Amino acid sequence: MQPKKERSPCPAVLGHFDQQYSEELGDLWASAREVLLDPRSWQYGVMLNRFSVVTDITQILQSQGFSTLLPQTCVSARLFDSPSLMTYSKYQEGEDTLPTLRISKCPREDFDLQPVITSDEHRQDLQSEPSISFPAASLQCYIHPSPLRFPSQAHRPGQLKQYYLLNAASLLPVLALQVRDGDKVLDLCSAPGGKAVAIMQSATPELLCCNEPDPHRRDWLTKTLESFLPHSVNSRVVVSARDGRSLGHSEAGFYDKVLVDAPCSNDRSWLYSSNNQQGEQRLKGRSRLPVVQAQLLRAALSAVRPGGVVVYSTCTLSSFENHAVVETVLNDFPEAEPEDLWEEIAIPLSKYFEFSPHPGYEQLHHEASMQPGATYHHRLGILVVPRPGKTWGPMFFSRLRRRE
Ligand SMILES: C[S@@+](CC[C@H](N)C(=O)[O-])C[C@H]1O[C@@H](n2cnc3c(N)ncnc32)[C@H](O)[C@@H]1O
Predict the structure, then answer these.
(1) What domains can be seen in the chain, in order of their start residue?
(2) Residues with CB under 6 A from ligand 1
(3) Angle at the Cα of 347 (from 346 to 352), degrees rounded to 5?
(4) Which positions are catalytic?
(5) pTM of the model
């Protein structure tokens, strides 16, 4: 592993965060700050690609002390590691209809559904944690208790990548989305595609529409999809180039599940802005973000069918971009109902992540309740706050169901 180059935090951003987050998060900010200011302490998750043969990787991971974040049961779709070459038959920005992917070469179309080969170690994991039960059983992510960074995988000509490195908290919005085989799913803000890949690990949707309006980032998204998905599932995955805010009308009621992984302050990356000027520039535009985020969330609620769900997520600690956005949208969207994710996600995974239901609210009202199934504020969403030893996050996620 190469030692990471030392980076220094941007003073303007740090000063701004100190002011806002010490007020909103109280003591939680002190520990989050300690993590954010020490990149050497950051942990990395290794999400396996079920479409590729990963036996060698799991053996290496296990020998290095990595263990699975989620229980492994059920089936894994394996596609013999075939290459994924695809071209777009239609691919234009601002186009009204969704572009479709055309497979240009397809050496092996079918794929097997085979049981995951679980080692004794895995079986022991499962036995010791019987209370954890997620439907997305084929989603596998390995984590390490210390900040051990697994090397990223270079391009392998003609072969799919075996794993994707990520902040393990990024998987939580995907778990909250509860994608099932046959669902129609919209990933409204999709690039670079980490959550789209995670969705395809969780289930086999009938359709996954990955939307990204920024051309440069869309190229990145396309490359990610090409590197991880086999030809046999490409027909289910389309890339679109729309402003997500306009999708609510044109796709009204079409999707079963919509993920809004919104453009946000991205605390980790803002803190390490390349210079103070860039940091200040970002902070200047910060107050406009909640407006766009609320527009995207409204569009998602329009695009989902009655009874379907929308998951809203960000990677900032800012309550203005998190709970406040959800609350604003709920006020003018009476068909949407927030769901409590505390018992479903926070309690089973509290060993790995530091969860907080609504720190800003509790700070202000001094009536913190960490009990399951608690208040309305509980249901507005859950915040993952980094702290030493559990450095995952920041990540906020909230699930809204559109009433039947
Ligand atoms: C947090 S990133 C998404 C990360 C991605 N979901 C993943 O897991 O890799 C937010 C994305 O939203 C895109 N975005 C910005 N404005 C948008 C809009 N109006 N509609 C849709 N996407 C937008 C940004 O270009 C950016 O790629």
Answers:
(1) 11-402 (3.40.50.150)
(2) 188-195, 211-214, 217, 243-245, 261, 263, 296
(3) 70
(4) 315
(5) 0.85
Chain CA centroid to CA 98, Å: 23
Q: Which residue has the higher pLDDT, 326 or 2?
A: 326
Structure tokens at 225: 């999809």
Q: Rounded CA gap, 310 and 402, in Å?
A: 8
Closest C-alpha residue for ligand 1 atom 12: 189
Tell me the two tokens of residue 26.
Answer: 């109280």
| CA 205 vs CA 36, 175, 234, 391: distances in Å | 36, 14, 11, 31
User: What tokens were used for 5?
Assistant: 């180059």
| Cα–chain center distance at 200 | 12
Whether 171 contacts 198, CB under 8 Å:
yes
Structure tokens at 69: 């974040």
With residue 331 as reference, give the H or E element that holds it: helix 323-332
Looking only at the bridges linking them, the beta strands covering 304-314 and 395-402 are antiparallel
pLDDT tens across 56-85, in order? 999 999 999 999 999 765 333 333 334 333
Question: Closest ligand 1 atom to the C-alpha of 188?
Answer: 21
Q: Could you give the CA distance from residue 377 to residue 359 in angstroms, rounded to a whole number?
A: 10
* Residue 214 alpha carbon, nearest atom of ligand 1: 25
Apex 230 CA angle, 229 and 233, nearest 5? 85
